[in-house]
Design a protein that fits this description.
CATH topology: Rossmann fold
Shape: globular
Number of strands: 10
Distance between the termini: 48 Å
CATH architecture: 3-Layer(aba) Sandwich
Bound molecules: adenosine-5'-diphosphate, magnesium ion
Order of helices and strands: EEEHEEHEHHHEHEHEEHHH
Helix content: 25-40%
Radius of gyration: 18 Å
Structural class: alpha/beta
Largest sheet: 6 strands, mixed
């Protein structure tokens, strides 16, 4: 199958030194790909690089044949990429309805909002409520709904479960698992690697701004070396706590 997103030999960073050190990665239509890796591996930097938010970048990012390197975020949205950043992904002082209405690049806003409210039923009764007063799970749904407003073919999510209470995490993964049925492929950046891989088709592990392993999700879930890599941080934390 032809790739939707094809990244090759991507380097870049914020200041003088590179954070991304030659990334290769592919996302095919309507599949879920997890990007795992410990804290500081470069996962958020990679997500930002794809949507034009990294100041310095070289290499190739092809999305449906268009090269994204050097493009602004709005152009990436127009081409069909949605981005849900880890924080600041809704406007807290605006209502739920306003949060959806102000998304730029969306056509047929009313019809699209109706579609998304059917997909995220928790939001429908809260349209007039300020986003800042939503629960963590509702807020997360709003952030995803906002990103889906322009009908992207690819949704990039940066640690969507990080701010959720443990009880909400499974529901969030279930919501993500269903996105391909809406025709959306997902690039899922997650520290909860096992749960993310369980709903993914494929995955890769970043370390030091490089892909150190890439495989079918099922393989990464059973491979001992992979677990060592993506669970490294959990082990360090456990060791520090004991
Ligand atoms: N805005 C920034 N300016 C400078 N360095 C940054 C910035 N954001 C992240 N970094 C650095 O880039 C590296 C990778 O960070 P990040 O991509 O956030 O990792 P991850 O998301 O995998 O935890 C870290 O060393 C971090 O300190
Ligand atoms: Mg991060």
């Amino acid at each position: 199958m032809t790739a939707l997103l094809e990244i090759s030999d991507l380097h870049g960073g914020y200041g003088d030194s590179d954070i991304l050190n030659g990334i290769d990665l592919e996302v095919r239509p309507a599949e879920i790909v997890t990007v795992a890796g410990t804290n500081g591996a470069g996962k958020s930097t990679l997500a930002k690089a794809i949507v034009g938010l990294l100041p310095r970048l070289r290499g190739r990012i092809a999305f449906r044949g268009a090269d994204l390197v050097g493009r602004r975020t709005e152009a990436c949205v127009q081409l069909g990429i949605g981005f849900v950043p880890q924080v600041a992904n809704v406007f807290p002082s605006l209502t739920v309805a306003e949060n959806l209405q102000v998304v730029s690049g969306a056509r047929d806003r009313k019809a699209r909002m109706a579609e998304l409210l059917a997909t995220f039923p928790a939001l429908a009764p809260r349209l007039g409520q300020r986003a800042g007063s939503l629960s963590g799970g509702e807020r997360q749904q709003l952030a995803v709904a906002r990103a889906l407003m322009p009908r992207p073919a690819l949704l990039i999510m940066d640690e969507p479960t990080a701010a959720l209470s443990p009880a909400r995490v499974s529901a969030a993964f279930e919501l993500i698992r269903d996105l391909p049925r809406l025709g959306v492929a997902v690039l899922l950046v997650e520290q909860r690697a096992r749960q993310a891989l369980a709903i993914s088709d494929r995955g890769c592990i970043l370390d030091g701004g490089k892909v150190v392993m890439a495989s079918e999700a099922a393989t990464l879930l059973t491979d001992g070396r992979a677990a060592e890599l993506y669970l490294g941080q959990a082990r360090q934390e456990a060791a520090a706590a004991s």
